[in-house]
Amino acid sequence: MSSYVVVGAGPVGRETARLLVEDGHDVVLTSRNAGSISAAGLRTISADASDPKQLATMAKGAEAIFMCAMAAYHRWPTDFFPIMDGTVKAAEAVGAKLVVLGNAYGYGENAPSPLTAALPLDPTTRKGTVRNIMWQRALASDVPAIEVRASDYLGQSAVTYFSLLALPSLLRGHAISFLGDLDAAHAWSFTKDTARTLVAVCRYSGAWGRAFHVPCRNASIRELVGKFAAALEIEAPELHRLTADELESIGFHEGVEMSYLFDKSLLIDASDTENLLGVKASSLEAMIRDTLPASWQAI
Q1: How many CA atoms within 13 Å lie on the side-chain side of 263?
Q2: Pairing of strands 187-190, 42-46
Q3: pLDDT single digits (tens) 51-85
Q4: I want to staple 284 with a disulfide (CB 3.0 to 4.6 A). Which of 121, 148, 217, 234 is the partner?
């Protein structure tokens, strides 16, 4: 049995903590508003991860710290770095390994598809630059670090482009407006598969200082909407492409710079994760069932 600290109590952080406890480990789950979870071996502590001394106190004796915290989307350049720095310093203070939850933003708009974990990061947006800097700070630390990179999420309580722009209209049976090429293949990461990948990293005996991709399922926006509609037993609604001006007009300013993610095919090569960590992607149907609100999940 080992002990771990999970920073961030979102859907991935909470599932990571649950899986670690299920494996028999002692776990501290912390965030500014951690709430409480009733599970043997799990403690929830509300704390600010940007305070390395506070985080180091709760991480004493931990084998690894998982950095799964999320900053408000429009505040990444200001809010993410203190959290990352606090987590790195705490890991160094207690000698814990560092497992960072990241995403594909750092590869930039010009990266080839499919993305491989060995590709150099070349961000072309502010958010991609933030993610790149965070990973570089983890790499420069005095402790072993691995980053687990996900694509756009599906899963219960995940706040994503799909859950914000498509799902509400879909559940009401209204036409959907979404950004990008509606027929371009896109990689979708399941929050629970992401947590499984994070946990599997702890058992990895190879060289650290590298990244792993979360195994994904691929579907265009049109295909995904059709599968959601089938799960709901409704007709697939009409789809319309959002322009940058329309994104601005609905107040989604932060989505404009990231719209390139959906302008062309974006696929993820996770063969290293499958071969070295033994994690494979759940079915798209399982992801969809988990994403639907509880009142619809019985359908």
Answers
A1: 12
A2: unpaired
A3: 999 999 999 999 999 999 999 999 999 999 999 99
A4: 217
Contact 48, 90 (CB under 8 A): no
Kindly indicate the confidence band of residue 291, based on its pLDDT and cuts at 50, 70 and 90. very high
Which CATH number is 3-154+189-216+266-281's, of 1.20.1050.10, 3.40.50.720, 3.30.420.40, 3.40.50.620?
3.40.50.720
Tens of pLDDT along 12-22? 999 999 999 99
Report H helices in 187-276: 191-201, 221-232, 244-249, 271-272
pTM over 0.90: yes
Give the integer Cα–Cα distance in Å for 178 and 165. 6
Can you read off the two tokens belonging to residue 67? 């950095």
C-alpha separations of 133 from 143, 212, 247 in Å: 17, 17, 27
Beta carbons within 8 Å of 95's beta carbon, 6+ residues apart: 143
The 8 Å CB, 24+ separation contacts for 78-85 are 80/130, 80/134, 81/130, 81/133, 81/134, 81/137, 82/50, 83/7, 83/49, 83/50, 84/134, 84/137, 84/138, 85/50, 85/52, 85/137
